[in-house]
Every structure is written in C-alpha cells, then in structure tokens.
Specification:
The structure holds two protein chains of two kinds. By secondary structure, chain A is α+β, with helices and mostly antiparallel strands. Chain A contains 22 helices and 23 strands. By secondary structure, chain B is an alpha+beta fold. Chain B has helices at residues 6-13, 19-27, 34-45, 99-102, 150-157; strands spanning 51-55, 60-64, 70-74, 79-82, 92-96, 118-123, 130-136, 146-148. In chain B, strands 1-2-3-4 form a four-stranded antiparallel β-sheet. Chain B has a three-stranded antiparallel β-sheet with strand order 5-6-7. The chains are: A alpha+beta, B alpha+beta. Chain B: InterPro entries: Aceto_COase_bsu/gsu.
C-alpha cells in the first residue's frame, strides 16, 4: 500500500463529508447560481494563467499518454486499428475535468456511471477504497451501448477521494444471444449478454480472478475482452500517477481549486463560443431510419414488423448562448436493440460538438452544464424502461444527430463562417457482424469496423472528403484489410470506391466504398447486415441530394471454387448495381439483392459472397451548378456514373480513345437551361401540393410503418401533434 | 485575432481558396468582423438594392425592406415572404415519390422506397434554382429549417441596432 492509500475512514469525501453530500451540494449550488460549484470568478486562471494552463496541459497530456500506451496493450483491432478507446479524469462528484483524444463520446457518460455509484450508496456497500476497480457497461445507468465497456477507479489522496479515472474500449463481442459487439434483434435486456452495472471487479489494483473467469465464459472473444480489461486498468493507473505527481508539485489545495475552476471555465467558454460563431434562433432538421423486421423469422411476432424511427431534431440557441437540443415528437421505444437511454444521447451530442462547435481540448462537464437536452419520456431517446435492449443504440442516434450538424451549418452560414459548414454526415455503416466456426477452427465472433470510414458531407466551399470519417470516432481509419482478415473468416476480393454514394450537389458529398468478401475456411458462419435501406437517414442541404441508401447483395452456394481453380476472372466489386460485376462473373444457387440493409443473421458457407456497401455524405447546393471540371474528375475517378452526370448535373460529355471523359462546357450550360425549364414544367406551387397531400393525409393513405410512426409521435407529444395538424390545416381531433 | 481581406473572403466563399489556407482559417481563432464582411460581399453580388441583413442559404438572403419588413429573397430578385414564415410555402415543389423518379437520381437499390420516404425538391418560382431537398416520409410537414432571432443577434450579440 502506498502513501496515498488509507482505508479506515468513515467518509471519503472532502472535509469528512460523504460523496453523496458533495454531489448534492454541488447540484444545489448549480441550481441556485447557474455556475459550477457557485464559482463566480476564475481566481486561479485569472491570477496565474500560465500556471492554470500548465496544470491543464499536464492532465491532458497524462490522459493522452494513458490512451496511447493502453492502445498498444490491446490486441483488439477495434482498439488498435480504429482507436476506439478514451480516458478521462473526474472530480469526486463524478464531473469530468478533461478527456484524452480518441472516441470522445464519453464526456458525460462515465460521469453518469460514477454519479450512479454515489447516489446509490456505493460508499457503504460495496465500499470505495484505494485500489478498487469498478466495471460497467450498462447504458441504462451511464454508457452508450453495451460494447463500450468502462473501467473506473477512485483516486485517493490520503483519506480523501480526490477524483476518479475512467477508461473505455469498444469490445468485439458482448456475449449477447447473437454474436458481435453490437448484435441486434434482441427484444429485451435479458438477451443482451454480459452486462455489469458499476460492479466492483477488482481491488488492490488487480482484477478479481472470479470476474475474469466470468467474463471469459460470458463472451465469444474472451482474449480481447481480458486484454482490454488490462488496457483500461493500466490507463487508469497511469492517470492516477499523473494526478498524484501534479498534487505533489502544485499542492492539493491548488489541485482542488483547479478541478472546479476548469469545469466552470468549460461552461463559460462553451457559452462564449456559441455567441462567437452561431446565430440565435430555432433550427429544425428531422431524420429517419428504417427497421425492416417484417417477416423476420428469428423474432417474436410482436417485434417482427417494419418500423420507422422519427428524430425531429430541433436546436434552440438562446440570447445568452443557451444551447438546447430537443427531440420533441420522437416516436416510442421499440422491441429492438436500438433504444437510446439519455446517457447514450449525451454521448452522441458530445462526439458531435467536439468535432464541430468546440473542436478544442477543453471539453468537460462544464460544457455539459451549458447545454440542455429535451429527450421525451417514453420515446426511443428516453425509454424509461430499463428492460429494453440497447446493444445498438447507435443505429438511432447516428441519424438523429446528423440533424444537429445541419442545424449548425445553417447557423454558420448565417454568421458568414462558411468554412465550417457540413451538409451532415452519412449513416456510418454497413455494419457487418457475425460468428460461427472461424478460419482457425474455433468458435468465434467478429464485428468489422470498416464502417469507421465514410464520406463526409459536402461543405459550402468544397466537396466532402471520401471514406475517412465516422461521426462516432474522430480517428477515421478503416483498418488494414489484413487486420480484418485475421479476425474474420472472409477474404477480401476487393475494396474500392462505390460509385453514386456521394450525394450530388454543387458540392458533392464524400464517397463511400464497397468491400467484396468471400467466406473462406469456414464450414458455417452467420452474418448480420446493418444500415438504412428503404430511406435516406438524412437530407442534403441548400439543394443538394442525400448520399446513397444502402442495400444487401449476397450470393450463396456459388461457383467461386471452380472459378478460382480455372483461374477464371473473379469479381472484385459490384460497381453499378444495374450492371453488377458480381452477377456478371459468378453463378449462385441463391442470391439476395434488395433494400433490406438491416437484417438478422443469415447462414453462409465457404465461397459464398458478401458485399459490404458503405455510405457517402450528402451534397450541398443545386447539382446543376456543379463545376464542369469537377464533373469531369467525378467521371474519370468513378465517383459518378455517366448516366447520372447527364441527368442530374446536366453534363454533356464525350469519351476519348483512352476512355477519358471530357465535358463540353457550352453544351452543358445549354442543357442546364433546359433542365430549369423542365423544373418549371413539372413542379407545382407549394400551396397546390399541400392541398393534394392533405387529401392523402385525411385518408391516412400511408404504408403502415409511416402511419405507425405518426401515431406514435402523436401519442407521445401533444405539441408535435398540434404542429402537424396546424401545418396541414387538420381538425383538432385528427389522429392517426 | 485574424482579420481577412475582402479578396480572401471572396475566394473562400467561392471555394477557390487553396485548401492549405482554408485549413488555416478553420484552425485559427475566428475573425470577429466576418459577418459584416460577408454581408458586404453578398450585397455587391446581387442585382437588387434591398439591404441584406443575414445570409439564409445558398442563393437566399434575408433583406430589410423600406417598410421594415424582413423578407426572404432569392439572388434572382424573387421575394418569398416575411422571414418568420417558412419560404418553402411560397416555393415550387416537385416530389420524387415513385421508383422511376427516384432512380433518375440513384441507381436501383441505392435510393429510397417511396412507400417509406420521398424526396421533395423546392425550386425558386422565378429562376428555378433548386434551393432545398427534403428527404421525408410521405405526409410529413415542411421543415422550417431556420428561424433566426435577428433582433437579439444584432442588438445583444453585435451591439448594433437591428435593421
């Protein structure tokens, strides 16, 4: 036991107070003053700004150092290749002081977990002592989804708890009733696998052998789970050492003062930033995602239906820089794995804001305290039902928060900061998961994270970037093919740009890509597919079109073995869906090609083909204004197919004997004038359209998931129902 | 605090500034006078005399009329309505609500199922520029994208009289 460790003290908070008392007092002070801990002046920062910044840099550096070191302990490709980990430091009350780089989702989610322990009397039972290790992955308490597993350790200075260190990594398999880290199709928590709820999983800086054994037996990829436990624990210990060195150098009183000031500083800075770059007002950007489970034989009848998620994102920016996100009108939770408890929504909010509005290192719970989220009780965004499945909350929150990016973009444009504008991001999928006997003859599970690289949305001044980003992970690395082939019994036949994934516009979105995989050295394997298929999850902006919606294309019981033996041409991609290279080269007994991009596990055998289609970003601006040279590049690089360059961009072009495209400037401009005349001929005044559509609404003539969505939103939100009725001039009694 | 000249901002707005410079602008502190400078650039580029008081999208601005009304106006000069009303209510609309219409824009399987979602294209009734595209389920109300609080912005954030 080192000098910082003592155990025989009644209250572990400051000044002989309990943590519960500290938390309650902190909340009262904030409620009464609107300032963290009631701090009215940043005394340390203002009196000695260099020292203040030095302390912050030491902490931030310690967190980044912990992350970089821990990353190399992990064996999981999700952690090593993609960088799906993050470390953070907290006050005794569980408020975050600073975060490392990495997956900066967890500004407040780990806070929720710590506060849960405090509120529920963990000080008395199971007790919080120096060297204790707590583990949690319960999204209903504080997390985004079960695959994000937290290790949280207390930091003591003598008898006092001086704070908490926390680390998170994304696991490959969580032991759910289906394989994979984000298995879906479960209808309740009881099928979600290995869930720990702020459980004490170790003491004296060591994990309990009993916990490790339980984890080993509970998940399908135990090696990764156990190594990642050590990854997180090592990182937390490094953070503790950083803090203790800092206390030795600066003194405990200064450290205490700093940790509170830096959070209030974060709150004030966030408000100032809002006033610096946004415009006060109200913004709207709804988005949607399809859940096509109708006829799904692996689900109970009450869940085997088509559903449409409704995310009516509204952002209100107030006169003092208030920043309130609302999903008023969202529809009800469902018997699926896509429900999002509030902590998950907080995670999504912060991973967005740290990449957009506040792209700096000074993000902590001060910024959380500067914002508000209205998450309607009973909706998918706040289900108030902790028996629900949550393994893939990202499937709903990714679409919902692309609306926030569009809201911010309008504000940046209103303010003149056009370089900051993004038309949103694509759905970061296709998610491929599966399991079965792997290429090593062992029972295995996998979750490919190729989808961590997608096309970004178009900007106001440039095209989006291709295959490089995911809203949930600023690292933006799709991982080496070889790394995935080690984990997954699927060989790559090819990986390349997918044409027509980039949303068309004056500026196009960044393109997505596709990977064609062949099942290899496995007698049996199940594979899941996930992504939007029947809808676009978000819109474009200012006249740009959304990026692509996905689909599935699988070929079962193929002649690939014969083609390989004969050294016949093999496909390496699909390319144009209407002239598929897969179907051109390969014969199959069964072929699935449809919009059911989200489906439960399907059986695959060796030499079957699995196509993974990623998404591209939305476009911005009228496509008929796209620069001629940019269209030429799109054609020659394979981003756009010729027939769409002609129809949408109005391009008139030729191809030389080397196959290179040349777009005719004058002929294209002439054609574009014609396109505008066509728009005039085929469009109608909005008032006329509203009258027509109103008749359809009165008949309730909609496909059932659409009607169900409206009925659900009406039942949860009187204000949204009234807004709907008012727009369409319906009676106050109108209901779906 | 940076201060960019008009030429730089014009190139930025037109997407013609080298990316290295864009990257610097992105990474730097914001220039506090950007709003006024961008308004001046936009004002120079439109053919009308009404004073632009806020950019409101590509080709759309909110202008202040002589009678004090704040109107959403297209670059071509077409006036939609008071800014507190959704301009889309005064636009022309074309709805892609069949597979055939959707497949003019997307290859088969890569667009939407019109039973689940349609594309609504909003055009200026004068110049027929496509100003917005909504991707929504059938029967969804028009989205009122942006309702700026112009008085607060000018008076409290810019410390100027609201136009």
């Amino acid at each position: 036991m080192n000098k910082y460790h003592q155990t025989d003290h009644k209250a572990i908070g400051w000044d002989d107070r309990t943590l519960k008392d500290m938390l309650e007092q902190s909340e009262i002070k904030f409620k009464d003053t609107g300032r963290y801990q009631g701090i009215s002046e940043l005394v340390l920062k203002e009196s000695d700004p260099i020292r203040y910044e030095r302390i912050f840099s030491r902490i931030r550096g310690g967190l980044v150092n912990a992350r970089e070191t821990a990353l190399n302990i992990s064996a999981s490709p999700i952690v090593r290749e993609i960088g799906e980990l993050c470390f953070a430091l907290f006050t005794p009350e569980g408020d975050s002081i600073a975060l490392s780089t990495g997956i900066i989702v967890h500004v407040h989610t780990m806070s929720d977990s710590i506060k849960f322990m405090i509120r529920n009397g963990w000080e008395n039972n199971p007790k919080i002592r120096p060297g204790d290790v707590f583990g949690t992955n319960d999204p209903h308490i504080g997390d985004v989804h079960n695959a994000d597993v937290y290790t949280i350790t207390p930091i003591f200075n003598g008898d006092e708890l001086i704070g908490w260190a926390g680390g998170v990594t994304h696991e490959i398999d969580v032991g759910a009733s289906r394989p994979g880290s984000m298995a879906f199709g479960q209808t309740s928590r009881y099928e979600d696998g290995f869930i720990t709820t702020c459980e004490k999983i170790g003491e004296d800086d060591e994990l309990y052998a009993s916990y490790e054994l339980r984890a080993k037996k509970a998940v399908r990829a135990p090696m990764y789970w156990l190594l990642d436990e050590r990854t997180r624990l090592a990182g937390c210990q490094m953070i503790r050492e950083t803090v203790m060195r800092l206390i030795e150098e600066e003194g405990i009183d200064t450290y205490k003062q700093f940790m509170q000031e830096v959070i209030e500083d974060g709150r004030v800075t966030f408000r100032e930033r809002v006033k610096e770059v946004l415009v006060p007002g109200t913004y709207e950007a709804p988005s949607f995602i399809d859940v096509p489970f109708e006829g799904e034989p692996r689900m109970p009848s009450f869940a085997a239906k088509n559903q449409l998620m409704h995310a009516p994102m509204t952002l209100t920016v107030g006169s003092k820089g208030e920043f309130e996100v609302s999903l008023e009108g969202a529809n009800k939770w469902g018997y699926h794995s896509f429900n999002c408890p509030p902590s998950a929504m907080q995670g999504a909010l912060w991973v967005q804001l740290t990449q957009t509005l506040v792209p700096n290192d000074k993000i902590n719970d001060g910024a959380y305290l500067a914002t508000k989220c209205n998450l309607p009780p009973g909706s998918w965004s706040n289900p108030e039902n902790d028996t629900l499945s949550t393994t893939l909350s990202w499937f709903f929150l990714i679409p919902s928060f692309t609306g926030l990016i569009r809201c911010l973009a309008r504000s940046y444009q209103g303010r003149g900061y056009v370089e900051e504008i993004s038309a949103g991001y694509p759905g970061t999928w296709n998610v491929t998961m599966g399991g079965g006997t792997n290429q090593f003859g062992l029972d295995g599970a996998f979750t490919s994270f190729e989808h961590s690289s997608q096309g970004t949305g178009a900007g106001f001044i440039k095209d989006g970037e291709g295959y490089c980003a995911a809203m949930w992970n600023p690292e933006g690395d799709m991982g080496d093919i070889e790394a995935w082939e080690l984990l997954e019994p699927l060989l790559y036949l090819g990986r390349g740009v997918k044409p027509q994934t980039a949303g068309m516009g004056k500026y196009r979105g960044g393109a997505g890509f596709e990977s064609l995989r062949m099942l290899w050295k496995t007698p049996d394997q199940v594979i899941f597919n996930l992504g939007e298929g029947h809808v676009f999850h978000g819109s474009g902006m200012f006249g740009g079109y959304p990026g692509n919606s996905g689909y599935r294309h699988n070929m079962h019981e193929t002649n690939m073995k014969q083609l390989i033996q004969e050294r016949a041409p093999l496909p390496c991609r699909e390319g144009d869906t209407e002239q598929s290279e897969m179907t051109r080269h390969v014969k199959a007994e069964r072929e699935e090609i449809d919009n059911r991009a989200t489906c439960l596990e399907k059986d695959f055998v060796e030499h079957d083909l699995y196509l993974s289609v990623q998404r591209g970003g939305p476009g911005l601006g009228d496509p008929s204004e796209r620069d001629i040279k940019a269209i030429e590049e799109d054609l020659n690089e394979g981003f756009v197919l010729p027939r769409f360059a002609e129809k949408v961009y109005g391009a008139i072009f030729s191809q030389d004997d080397k196959g290179k495209y040349h777009v005719d400037n004058d002929a294209t401009n002439e054609r574009r004038q014609e396109l505008r005349k066509q728009r005039a001929a085929k469009s109608i005044p909005a008032s006329e359209y509203i009258s027509q559509e109103r008749e359809r609404i009165l008949k309730k003539d909609f496909y059932y998931p659409v009607s169900d969505m409206y009925a659900s939103s009406f039942s949860l939100s009187q204000s949204w129902a009234n807004k709907y009725r008012e727009f369409w001039k319906l009676s106050v009694n109108f209901n779906f | 605090m940076p201060n960019y000249d008009q030429k730089t901002l014009e190139l930025l707005m037109d997407g013609k500034l080298p990316f290295t410079q864009v990257h610097k602008i992105l990474s730097s502190f914001k220039d506090a006078d950007r709003f006024e400078k961008m308004l001046a650039i936009l004002q120079e580029r439109v053919s009308y005399d009404d004073k632009i008081i806020m950019p409101y999208g590509l080709h759309l601005n909110i202008v202040s009329k002589a009678d004090g009304e704040r109107i959403v106006k297209c670059d071509c000069g077409h006036e939609f309505c008071e800014h507190s009303i959704n301009w889309k209510l005064h636009a022309n609309v074309y709805v892609r609500d069949t597979e055939e219409k959707i497949n003019e824009i997307y290859p088969k399987y890569m667009g939407t199922d019109p039973n689940w979602m349609v594309l609504r294209e909003f055009y200026c009734p004068n110049c027929f520029t496509m100003l917005e595209v909504e991707a929504v389920p059938p029967g969804y109300p028009f989205t009122f994208d942006f309702q700026p609080d112009i008085d607060t912005f000018y008076q409290e954030w810019l410390n100027k009289p609201a136009p």
